[in-house]
Amino acid sequence: MHSDLVASRSAEQKGSRDSREPSRESRNGSSPQLDAVSLAIIEQLQEDGRRPYAAIGKAVGLSEAAVRQRVQKLLDQGVMQIVAVTDPLTVGFRRQAMVGVNVEGDVESVADALSAMSECEYVVMTAGSFDLMVEIVCEDDDHLLDVINKRIRAVPGVRSTESFVYLKLKKQTYMWGTR
Amino acid sequence: MHSDLVASRSAEQKGSRDSREPSRESRNGSSPQLDAVSLAIIEQLQEDGRRPYAAIGKAVGLSEAAVRQRVQKLLDQGVMQIVAVTDPLTVGFRRQAMVGVNVEGDVESVADALSAMSECEYVVMTAGSFDLMVEIVCEDDDHLLDVINKRIRAVPGVRSTESFVYLKLKKQTYMWGTR
DNA sequence: CTTCGATCGTGCGGAATTCGCAGGAGTAGG
DNA sequence: CCTACTCCTGCGAATTCCGCACGATCGAAG
């Protein structure tokens, strides 16, 4: 697939539209319209976030400078972030949990309130028997208890919560592009 | 805090043990025993996965080469990975869901089976009304339906599942160290 | 049809970073 | 004391990053 991109480069470049046309319409109203080349760049960086721009350029058929500019734009737009990820349990956070939340009233405002809490690492609005799913990372049991019972339940609009304490993280991947 | 580390460097270096002693005992039996310096390095890379080694070294009080060697070891050991992360909805995966799974028999073997599926991005064993929580990423509704009803439920030992389809991702962070 | 402005890619040279390797220092065990 | 091992440092050399000027394409306006 990389060779495909490379091989078609010159044709693309002088073609009228090439593969840079938006791959899909925006659904959120704020989707920054990614083309195939940016997707390929993201895919490269999902394999290795420190891969040199020149190597990425060779893989996707762009110059080093062009890759650099695209990556910078993707970062600026917030489409992508390049970070180190770990298993929190390994790094000293002893308690982690997924919390299902039921809301009365405006779900989004509750989601915003929870997002503002540093212990909430992941907040998503869902359809199903929970309105929100929230992943929280804590230092110990006391901290966990405090966050769930004092902080989350104190948010106006939170009707009820159900907690799932993590026992063991089995898989964590970020390479959707590469399958 | 950075200045603390930097200031105490020379003392640490000639001290008998310095801050490099393991911060916590291993709980999993396979935890590679991280010291304070490695934690600080991870923290730097959680802010920016492409930060130069020299800059990290200045922040944690190590030479560029030492940081490089430590980062390489952390990557080799699988303690940390440096990757690009995105909101899958932005990158063209239109359906995403959290699935709670109830298991009869060996939970871990079911977790392994689910981990082997490329659509399962995140698999964790939990305590609570689900034995497993699985996050899945799909291209569209058909794909999602297929994964949940055909693939996940076909795994031996899966008793029941409950799905929470993602409506909107509100927060996604990886900076536990920096708070 | 031409021009203007904006976007995007390329090439280049200098600065900065990464890389590999040869020590030095501390520790544990015999 | 000596060896083996681990971890850090310092230093050239190769590579990469970065800023910038220029060319090409496209849409809109004149």
Q: Indicate the radius of gyration of chain A in whole angstroms.
A: 21 Å
Query: How would you name the oligomeric state of the polypeptide chains in this document?
Result: homodimer
Task: Give the averaged pLDDT of chain A, no decimals.
Answer: 84
Shape of chain A: elongated
Alpha-beta content class of chain A: alpha+beta
Percentage beta strand of chain A:
25-35%
Note the run of SSEs of chain A as H and E.
HHHHHEEHEEHE
Q: Please bin the fraction of helical residues of chain A.
A: 25-40%
Determine the N-to-C terminus distance of chain A: 11 Å
Largest interface: A-B, 70 and 70 residues
- Spatial order of strands in the largest sheet of chain A: 3-4-2-5
Uncertain segments of chain A are 1-30
Q: Tally the helices of chain A.
A: 7
Major sheet details of chain A: 4 strands, antiparallel
The number of strands of chain A is 5
